[in-house]
């Protein structure tokens, strides 16, 4: 399980807006198998197969930094709340 907090400044985070992203065993295998120049993306709907399906979507992108010293992780959280106009989303992007 990965835990993210959105940055609100240099080395400052909004500790109240924590997001978690739980990887499946297959996803962990894909992540471990990444080569130094490879990237991947995982898409999750935490409410899949329930009446709330589609209201929250999470996307985790992992891409190389370009200097062979690590990876850039980006978590995109999109929540579409019932009662808002179609197409109105609240989005949060967290970069680590």
TrEMBL record:
InterPro entries recorded: ssDNA-bd_transcriptional_reg, Whirly
Gene3D superfamilies in the cross-refs: Transcriptional Coactivator Pc4, Chain A
A molecular function (GO) term: single-stranded DNA binding
GO biological process, one term: defense response
Pfam families referenced in this protein's UniProt entry, alphabetically: Whirly (PF08536)
UniProtKB keywords: Transit peptide
Family: Belongs to the Whirly family.
Descriptive protein name: Whirly transcription factor domain-containing protein
Taxonomic lineage from the root: Eukaryota, Viridiplantae, Streptophyta, Embryophyta, Tracheophyta
